[in-house]
Hints:
The chain has 354 residues and is an all-alpha fold. The model has no long low-confidence stretch (mean pLDDT 92). It has 16 helices and no strands. The protein has helices at 7-29, 36-43, 54-65, 72-90, 101-116, 122-138, 144-161, 169-179, 187-210, 219-224, 245-260, 272-297, 303-322, 326-335, 337-344, 346-353.
Amino acid sequence: MQILIKKSTATFLLLSAVNLIVAFVAFFILPPKFFYDAAIIIYDKFGEVGYIGSYPLTILFYKITGLKYLPFPLIGILQFPILMYILNKIGIPDNFEKVNIKNILVYIGIFLMAVFISMPSKEFITFLCVTPIVFIYRKKEYSTQKKIIVSVFLLFVFGALYRPYFALIPIIAGGMYLVSFINFKNKTVMVIFYGLLIAIFLSVSYGIIKGHYFSEISRELVNTTRDNPSDANSAIVSPIKPDTWYGEILGIFYGFFTVNIPINGLKHIFSPQILIFIIWQLLLFYILLVRFSKCLKEKEKYKYEFFVLLILFSFFIIQGVFEPDLGSVVKHKIGIFPLIYFALYYEHFRKELQ
């Protein structure tokens, strides 16, 4: 009996197989700095294991599952297929085998998944926790209101228990949604601009109450306490210290453009791994921006993609506040890759939802 496999499915399976090898061999190839977080998770030298916080919960997860006792290559070949299975359940678009910019971005994204999930990782947990949001928007039987309420609830819970900045996403996304009803000449740019203003307002308000601004206690703190200068090769350093309200405002704008439109990163032309990220990031941001602009013009037609893109662009804005370097930027994007995958192929998924 002849078994026929669609070209798109065959391409997906081939990518899965090739990158499973990448997940296995990454431990033997990557430099030590890639494993700093993994070492903290596995060895827990400071007894951080617990029920609230990214490190405590991740340490607890790897302890309970027994994964912490396995060699890293084995962890990689156990974790990576789980994430590929999730992407498969989300759906494989019909033209996945065609070599175009959108598909190449996803191919690279899958490769990056294999690299960053080849070890104990907080991004593995983030990937699993973000996935339900995609499945919620794929459910035909759920009303739009129910989808929004559940996704907002999940983001708040994830922010409260794991990564606090995720709790800011619904606030920024909600503000951007309201601004989208105002008529602007260039609505796409203005909606993102107001998203940045909301982030600035939240940070400055926090600074007035607590005495320190968001980027000061995250990006600035990490970059000033690095033990090895070589680890700061792609560090995002604000033009002026973010210990004043005007320094924080400039730092957030600078961070947003450095993270999402990293033209200034071209100075790393002799660092191929950084250059590849820059090109990947520029193309990804451009394609999502074009889709966001399309959704703003036809919110009802593309309502589910619109809400997912609001979440994504809110996350991109937050990355501009908190991320210490370009390596962390791409690693954290892998954590939300299910949302990126869904947004890039929404036209395919929309047909299934109709």
